[in-house]
Amino acid sequence: MSSSKFTASKSTDGGVDLNLTQTTMDFAETVKIDNRAVGGVKTSELAMDITAKAIRTKPLLDLLAFAVAHEDQRQLKADQAELKALLLAALPLWERVGGTYTFTNFAFETYAGNLGAARLSTTFGADGIAQSGKFEYEIKASGVSFPYIIPGWAAKLLPTEFDLKFGGANIDLYSMTRKAIETFDLNKDPPLPADFGDQIKADFMANMPKFIVEHSVFKNGDTEIALQGEVTFPGNKPDADFTVDVAGYDKIVESLKVSARSESEAAQYLPFVLAAQGFAKKLPDGRLEWVIDAKSDGSVMVNGGMLKPADPVVDESVE
């Protein structure tokens, strides 16, 4: 059983604002690879809420009309100046689009066992083709269960509840899109220069795009891990700053120690967990914290201490 509602209204910024809500009960879907069923998705309720602001409906309809009228390739090439004008007029396509999908009693069934959650939701948002756009994504779950293929000692350490938030900023899609539209020539093969990909990549990176992890939390019993930070790419190399703090780290260590007595794989991870504990800073509330600074020169510092020095400088002028 499913019900839905769709509304549209004129946007104050031009274009059209849209909203679609839909609820589906007892949803089930079979996942197939090479026409063979390999799993299935089930949920007792799937709720969807999608919104879009200032969709450029008129320019998009003009583009559709142009496409219908130009099925002939020769005519399309002759009128490509009009096509370019229509494409530019359609930018940024929309001001903002976003939505939420919420699953109740979610289960992904496989031959190796089921991955499930009492409640699972995904939320997304994205600007249109802007010069300094951004996007956000959030995955939130509670009552998480894991397939039996995961070893018991590892399953004890995996989160049964989490809230992961990430996104990007300074995303310049407008400049690269406009440059592509202005550069392509349908009378040439290929329509864009061979080095065009390298050109727009350089332009894109010059705007210093940023990957962001907002404050995210992973919980399992008495253990809670919090994470936040960002990554930029100066000189096309990643420069990352992250902060990780953990409540109940002693519970993780103790669990691995017990498992290591009978599980060789758990014993392999134990030295790394103990070593990480040695780099940690103890906070007043008892949590352990790691402030990680990984520079584009290859150096890595943890809580102000050098974990790895910078990579050797290579003189590229010497062959």
Please describe the topology of this protein:
Blueprint: E1 2-10, E2 16-33, E3 36-55, H1 57-69, H2 73-78, H3 80-90, E4 96-110, E5 113-127, E6 133-142, H4 152-155, E7 161-171, H5 173-183, H6 196-206, E8 210-220, E9 223-232, E10 239-247, H7 249-260, H8 264-279, E11 281-282, E12 288-294, E13 300-302, E14 305-308
Antiparallel strand pairs: 1-2, 2-3, 3-4, 4-5, 5-6, 6-7, 7-8, 8-9, 9-10, 10-12, 11-12, 12-13, 13-14
Helix pairs in contact: 1-3, 5-6, 7-8
Cα separation of the termini:
69 Å
Helix content: 25-40%
Q: Indicate the proportion of strand residues.
A: over 45%
Number of strands: 14
**Helix/strand order, N-terminal first:** EEEHHHEEEHEHHEEEHHEEEE
Count of helices? 8
Q: Quick one: overall form?
A: globular
Q: Biggest sheet, in brief?
A: 14 strands, antiparallel
Average pLDDT taken over every residue: 93
- Structurally, the number of domains stands at 2
Helix/strand-derived category reads alpha+beta
Low-confidence stretches: none
C-alpha Rg (nearest Å)? 26 Å
